[in-house]
Write the structure tokens for this entry.
Amino acid sequence: MQKRNISKQNLSFGQLFNLSFGFFGVQIAYALQSANISRIFATLGADPHTLSFFWILPPLMGMIVQPLVGKYSDKTWTRLGRRKPYLLVGALIAVAVMLLLPNAGDFTFAQSAFLGLNAAMWFGLFSLMFLDTSINIAMQPFKMMVGDMVNEEQKGTAYAIQSALCNAGSVVGYLFPIFFTWIGIANTAPEGVIPDSVKWSFYAGATILILCSLYTFATVKELNPEEYAAFHGIAEKKEDEPKKDKGFLQLLKEAPSAFWTVGLVQFFCWAAFMYMWTYSNGAIAINCFGWDGVNAADAAFQNAGGWVGVVFCVQAVGSLLWAAFIPKLEHWFGNKGAYSISLVVGAIGFISVWFVTNQYVLWISYALIGAAWAAMLALPFTIVTNAIKGGNMGYYLGLFNCTICIPQIVAALCGGLLLKYICAHVQAGMLVVAGVLLLLGAASVFAIKEK
């Protein structure tokens, strides 16, 4: 049989777009989680010093789930596709949980507490665990399909499209609560109950998530085993492949240097953004809305929660604009220079939040933070996937996700201590800590070794 020379083929813009369109819906769900989890658990009764502990679950589940999705989807060859079955299952579970999570304060629970958490908080905690598990199951296939089906020449474009859809989804997810408030849906509720504006945001996000995921599922045709082997140049190597699957320790041992050096930068960057997601609501409520720092049912705290979505949206827009500027920076300063400069700009944005008392001036701070986010989305996966051989692409990308998850777990475990002993209980101080972490990330960029 004549071998197909598909390794040289380019995909059309429409094909590249279809590969990642479902990511738009997944990112809406992720944005709703990022912007509202602290608000939800504070409303349910969480103390600011323990708030970061609730953020351990999302990265922990990602660290467990994504390598498994990568490992098993590498070997899943079905009529429905290789990665697409995982995409669909993850999306369906996420939709179910998104309908339940914002109602944690409405169900009738016994009021007794266990380990300092009331029953509503435990329900929310388990819902969050399932939500992030399902988001990770649905999210990872999009990254893998680009690695599977896009050649090196177009990979940068493919991840740029994915980044644009990611930011667009973030904008929609971040703005949902304040949009629903604007059209008249209540943004406050009795103590311990999550406002209707947040509930309807999750309902709308769930609807868009499933529709976008079904679109990609229906429009993308994945490569079959023979086409995949030819595309990645591994067809002739089949007989030389070991009979036994390599374990993750062996794969880590054989990982290219780019895997580790980019991972060092990732550690500082993702720890910084963990503190942004955790403490922005409290910092903005106190600095700009006059919140007393105690009663989470207070209108000042809930209004700040809506404004968090706005400034996170500004961050996403800033990220889109900065992403268009990154190629110029790469031309002037090289990849490492562009990466480092972007992180420094983001650090300035984080540190400036300490000084801001006007809610509209925060737009400048969070637009600058968007520069770091743009670099984090645009560069790491391009560098790593170009350094990885095709046979274990999914497994490696799943393992690489640990460089995103581990720093968030470490940051979450340390958050309460830093807030108490370094920041003197001032939540805005945690954003200064985030700025310092980004500066460390900017310095560590120069350890990256690219091929």
In short: The two ends are 35 Å apart (CA to CA). The longest strand covers residues 113-114.
